Amino acid sequence: MTDEPLPTQLTEAEVSEQMAVRLEKRNRVLADGDEVYPVGVEVSDTIGAVRARFGDLQPDDKTGVTVSLAGRVVHQRITGKLVFAALQSGAGDRLQVMLSLAEVGEDALTRWKELVDLGDLVQVSGEVISSRRGELSVLASSWTMAAKALRPLPNLHAELSEETRVRARYLDLLVRDRARETVRWRATAVASLRSTFAAHDFLELETPMLQIQHGGASARPFVTHSNAFDTDLYLRIAPELYLKRAVVGGLERIFEINRNFRNEGADSTHSPEFAMLEAYQAYSDYNGIADLTQELVQNAALAVSGSTVVTWADGTEYDLGGEWARIGMYESLSEAVGEEITPETPLSRLEQLAAAVDIELDHPLRGKWVEELWEHHVKPGLTAPTFVRDFPVDTSPLVRDHRSRVGVVEKWDLYVRGFELATGYSELVDPVIQRERFVEQARLAAGGDPEAMRVDEDFLRALEHGMPPSGGMGMGIDRLLMALTGLGIRETILFPLVK
């Protein structure tokens, strides 16, 4: 009796050698008139379904039930008249198959021994039984090659490096349970978001990803060119201005979940391409949209983990339940630096406070200095979910002025796990003020600010038809998964962009 050795991390020369052997086996199958990659194979049951139905069989039991299933060979042990193999489904479920000389015949048994390698996809038909050791199995009466693997699998008992997991996600999904779980968690969380929106009578929309001019956020865009229109276009940095057009058109509760693109840095919380949720609710404001956001996140946590107390990848528990704190940006910064900071605080004083803590910034807007100081002094201490409210007006050109405070706008950022998860506004719906804000942004753009927006005349024309008072929010789907799982952004994106 011999066990086929599990694959190790092979050198390129060893991979080439194995590929040559596997290619020769592929050619043998074709020479015999059989298919190596058939158009389809008979499958009556999944591996998971068989385990669920017959998981309580006693040792040496027979069911009399014949199934046909398919999976990837991830282990095999060969004796003279018997082969034991473990098949793995796409969901990660495994089941033993047994090929005996008496049951499958000499030709089929020999062909398996000579042609099947670890990593191959095979179809097996046979009776569901339990082995003498109590292992649920399929006693094969026939088998078929479903797809020949020309490259060897990585070592199934060794951790893949993070670089390999990111660059070859297909291998990560094959060998690591957490990788498959993360994909399912993401799908579950997004389904929960849609369910919560549906319960509040929201409609899901799709808006353009190719835009004539970039807008809806302060960010550096990707630029492409349309041959059909002979014009440069921008990959959208946000869907905001189109969603607001829809609100003008009478769609009063709307959301979109789709991709955004920002030509900026990549780190543990940022990716140039990312999934974003944006939502708008007419006749609401930043308070109402904060309530909705809390409900969205808490419902997603319940859907993914069954509790608002989620367990991260490192085993740490994080509580997303209850009512979340709401703090003011200026108030919390004032407390942190020991003096009152207001929208009227001179730029010279903000520069002094920044220099005292080695903050380097070259920007004409006082709001930028306030935000940088806040991120230095206050952000690191935020651990529990917290809405940070009332931002400087000059850094938020699409937000309504605060109803009772000069120099700030009705905007919040939601911090979870110490990073920004979502942002919400009382939307600016006055077309006259919006035009003034756009003109100021255009002035900054002309001065060389690559993140500043241009005047969007089409959007202003829509706004001039009247947009109801509204609350709006945006939340990164990738970051939501980070909050629910404790994983980095490259783990929550299925195929992240890497150099």
TrEMBL record:
Q: Which residues bind Mg(2+) 1?
A: D413, E420
Please tell me where this protein is predominantly located. Answer: cytoplasm
Cofactor(s), by name? Mg(2+)
Entry's localization field: Cytoplasm
Q: Which residues form the signal peptide?
A: none
Q: Which NCBIfam families match?
A: lysS_bact, PRK00484.1
State the name under which the record lists this protein.
Lysine--tRNA ligase
